[in-house]
Structures
1.
Amino acid sequence: MASRRTFVKSLAAGTVLGGLGLWRQPAWAELGATQPAMLSGTDFDLVIGQTPVNFTGTPRSAITINGSLPGPLLRWREGDTVTLRVNNRLSEVTSLHWHGILLPANMDGVPGMSFDGIEPDGQYTYRFTVQQHGTYWYHSHSGMQEQAGLYAPLVIDPREPEPFAYEREHVLLLSDWTDENPNRLMSTLKKQADYYNGHKRTLGDFIDDVGRDGWRATFSERLSWAQMRMTPTDIADISGLTYTYLVNGHAPDSNWTGLFQPGERLRLRLINASAMTYFDLRIPGLQLTVVAADGQYVEPVVVDELRLAPAETYDVIVQPQHAEAYTVLAQAMDRSGYACATLATRHGLRAPIPPLDPRPQLSMADMGMDHGAMATTDHSQMAGMDHSAMAGMQGHPPTETDNPLVDMQTMQPSAKLDDPGLGLRDNGRRVLRYGDLRSRFADPDGREPSRTLEIHLTGHMEKFAWSFDGVPFSAAEPIRLTYAERVRIVLVNDTMMSHPIHLHGLWSDLEDEHGNFQVRKHTIDMPSGTKRSYRVTADALGRWAYHCHLLMHMSAGMMREVRVEEGQPT
Amino acid sequence: MKPFISLLLAGAVTHTAHAAEAMDHSMHGSMPGMDMSGMDHGAMDHDMSAGSTPLPTASQSRTPIRPVTEADRLAAFPPLHSGHESHDQGLNHYLLVDRLEWQHLDAGSALAWDVDGWIGGDVDRLWLRSEGERVDGQTDKAELQTLWGHALSPWWDVMLGVRQDFKPGPAHTWAALGVQGTPLYGLETEATAYLGERRQSALRLKAEYDLLLTNRWILQPLAEANIYGKNDEAREVGSGLSNTELGLRLRYQVRPEFAPYVGLTWNKSHGNTPAEDDDAEARLVLGVRAWF
């Protein structure tokens, strides 16, 4: 055990090298590193600055922590009080947010809510007591810095022994890198939201579909989409056309390798630190035993593949035995590219990289739009409808009505907890579903929620405008919770995209279809056409960010402040 | 793998037993010891899924929620100098050179342009539209419209502003009121009414569609019609349907922002409008489409 706790005093060196502009991979992510190195203890000095990088053959500048991308793995211990002095060497305000960590609001690192941010040449000291354990990550909450490289893994060792055993562990942090200026990505999407969709349907697809489904069905299907002004190939707003997908800061051809001895049990700490990318991860030849989600223990479930929404983390245990090398393949959800790494008995080995799966396409059913024609605003078409079919119709907040920035409303959403997800159904592999995640601990609160807040995820694809209930962040009032109350949040996805929804400072306790506590998470994935509910205990006072963790969606307005205030004494 | 799973399950049993009594421990996956090898597997017939076995509903949180202290209050609401930044009210802009083309005429050649651009937010935008034609080095037609566009619905904007004609004839100013929108995916339409000096009135209808042959080869049919309220000889227009243009352009997107094209257009004068020499004849066009 002690060997994987290598304590590296690399901080001073990292700072100097960073200052000199030398590119340095963190030791734990290095090709040759068999023993991951990290910064551990209770006292940390972190420096945020610019560092030259080269992932694609073109030199670029990244925003880094201590000169590395990803930043250093921080290893804390549950119960410790940690102090982190964060220095800003950028020419703009920066911040670090500890994703999924319970802490006082002024330590949460969200400029404009928790603090003022860290000015250029400034320093902010974070200090708080660590109340949890597991696999997490940390990242900038300022502008587009997260897209520019400002993210890193965070591991908290538990006080109590863990309910599973393993001989070795590796952190696998997935991310998406672009050579473009991240601010430019946003302005490009505002000009042409389908810019990065290089696989829109063509005349050839139409002819193929007519051949397969006939004129009538094909024409009707095309008309439904045309009336929605959408394309079913719109799976990811930003794709492999600009992204290079990384594992621990390594592009596929530089092959990050994690070592093992045959028969060893490996704990893989999987982190999706990407700005905009859903990853579907598998290791051909190995089964993944999922033991934790978002840092929380779950009943072990054995799968072949799992989907990581942005900001989610999973801990899996694998036991490589027969082969010398295994490929860790993380396909982008739209199949426009992949990140990959190798698990091997020694460096220099590679296993075959399997071909990417076919590109998925959305269906009307995926979006909860089984009656495609009703997607249009022309309600006259509903005149002849069977009223019994209307019973399950989803209601919508009045702020969505006549709202030019709400381009669709789902009609029959459902929890879809047993759905492996778009592009993962019937692929011959056992895929983790949200319904498989069962907490190892009972509902830590136990009260019935005293009230329900229904919030709709809304947007306009073509304008790349995103919001909750049709109201963007800057025009919205905070969602107010009373300290100590227990509420139920019901999310309804009124868009065609998936959204990972993250509430800072408070847990999101996902409920099953019957309203029972199922699993504790910090980020709840909301695929299109879903309606999911979770419980929140407002046990932390303050102003908390609540947003879609697709960076560009958050920036475009899909965000709220959740304000937990003390109730009036009665 | 089997002993490993057993270990996990054993953990669950131990855990479930502890869950109700001490939340702190349950959150840490409490386990008295790692060595479970001696455990009786028969003891594991319980419901292992703690999460799906609701405990009796509590009236107070099982995990104690501690009372708020003054220090908590200070930490929770620090004084701040500004709010959280958001791009949702930001200014964006787009300039589309939809057509910049050389046209082959029977009598020489023409250079024609059609430019559309906007600056603004998601709902309200300032639009610029310009189109015109130069024949043999002389500007034959040129106009500029400045419009305020307001989104009425997800797919329809109302447009209000002015149009200035520089050519043909003397300069002419119009007030403009119209709509533009997307009735179907890929189909862009405009209908604008104009009220000009000397009580002239006009209506312009425009539609274009992008047909994807592939994701790079795109066929764009286009139709435009101009209708006038009365004859205006200086500008060579007659009342009623005055002129129409049909176009078919095939472009190749080198990048989404830049696409050279080749196409054919048919311009035709109707009714009271004097016919030009090359009326109703197909013109070969070569041009580029670009946006910024």
2.
Amino acid sequence: MSTRLARALPYALVGLASAYLYYVAAHIEYEHRAGTLGPDFWPKLVLALAIAVCLFEIARVALSGGRGAVGEIAQLAERAAPGEEAPAPPPESLPRLAAGIALTALYVWLLGPLGFFCATVPYLAAFVVLGGYRRRGVVAAVSGLGTLLMMFFFMKVVYVSLPLGEGAFREVTLFLMRTMGIR
Amino acid sequence: MVEIFQNLGHGFVQLLEPVNLLSLGVGLVLGLLVAVLPGLTLVMGVVLALPFTYSMAITPSIILLTAMYVSGTYAGAWTSILFRVPGEPMDVPLLWDGYTMARRGRAAKALGWTLAAALFGGLCTATAMVMLAQPVAKIALTFSTAEYFALIFFGLTSVVSLGGASLANGLISLFAGLMLATVGVDDTYGSYRFTFGVPILRDGIDYLVVMVGAFGLGEVFMRMGQGFKSAPLESVDKVSTQLPTLREAWAVRSTFVRGTLLGIVVGIVPGAGATVASFLSYGVESQYGRRRHELGNGIPDGIVAPQTAATASVGGAMIPLITMGIPGSGATAIILGAFMLHGLQPGAQVFETSSHIVYAVFASVFAAVIGMCVIGYLATRTLVRVLEFPEVIISAYVVMCCILGAFAARNSITDVWLIVVFGVVGYLCDRFRFPIAPLVLGVILGPIAETNFMTTMISYDNDWTVLFTRPISGVIMFLAIATLVYPFVRWLRRLRRAARGALI
């Protein structure tokens, strides 16, 4: 029973979210013109279909518990695979994953105040170390030289205005830009 | 006909310009490298290359991305055959016969069959693309919004029904993509939809942000969770390519032709790309092939079928892109984005307004097919050594390319936040087996589908039956519904068979 509940849960959540968005769609403000469907019609149609699919899946899981309809590739892969399967993926570490996501979010948050160079060097180093790579010289080269190369390429060649940072960090970025001949 | 050949000739002349040749070469090598690396998919590679084309002229930038697309369908086969590591999802069928052939001491021959299949499929698809594009564009000029909507509907249903492991999950992903596409100001009425008072959402959510996040960052987060540990590579003493003789190739001629035709047709269907083509072709071979009972034992038919179809799908996918502005796959969606970034809207009129660019791109497909095979023949050994490079370092730069690509489009940190959000969404989709392709295609095709649907409704007094009563749109709509209903019918049959079995 609990297995079925766990299987049905994602569909229940998606169904509820769709129902809420349907409510939001029903309250979209617009100037009604006679004979037209309105800007709410298309999203309501999509959401109604999403709710219908979720209800169908919840009912299917509750009644049969088995696997539902599958796509053609999955069918073919099952039918045609004569023995050599792709190797199974390695086990997952949720703390490392969470740390990776948090690190990336922190980087984006600091990108504005620290500027591209000062934020990217520690980010790249931390990312590589978190990913399990420990050779210090390579980590330093990947983060330091890599960031300088990207800065040069994007600012000098592709003309992207990367964040300069604030205060002292801005001065560091401007110094590096002057050194590399970036205006 | 003569005009087509003349234009193609001009296209080849344009291709000889140094900047175009350089783009072609860089695109080929990048495409091959991306396909070899298991953590990087072909679509992701094309996505990551896009920001580098911002400051380029339109022709070399499209040539670069197209060359990546072409060569990306080929090199993943090497790692499937040599190391049992499919570089791309489309290379999984190559494990079944390609790797088996290699394990029996004929790795060079397996690589040779792959090269021959990619060359044949690639040249045929390039020819078909050149011959069909202009006539299709002429037909497309007669299409009304009803036909365009029907075509997009067909593409959306086919990506769901052909692709993922669960039809319901595919549909939910698709609906999520269609909903994301509605965020922002509505084109027809000018009203705000699902902006929740957040100013940046008024501009809508760019599909490039969704693609970069879901495909690029999502994959990196998944590999991060796995500690960037790939399956250990088997040691291969000597990597060389031994081409099949003409007599050997003639013996599997029907497989070459079947795979190529299937690849072109699958490519033309909006939504279905090289992976679908590769699996379908292997499936067709296992049902109708002359040596179907020997498939899986390392026979050439099992290599030729998926590889010809995968490469042949490229030209097929370029046809709806160029002639109707409808991307047939993830990679062509990026190429469409590149066209639009440079101010050119592909569609039925493109042969009138910018035929020189189109034919230069067509010529580059021929050159890319030949170029990738030459590089493949000479440099397989060198290119597969990229697998020895630490994956975490490559992934770190992938993240940087994702972030800089998202930032560069509008110089907005909010876009960078959005790709991190979609990176997490992409990871969760992968984790809970909701396919990403329908989500992304929903975001890309959603606005085109909605505009065409609403315009049709306005033109025909909200009479939705017009979609079924107009001959062309009617046929396409029925095909689309059949595509969607067929897996359910199959599922119901299976249930009934299981119930009958339980009774006995």
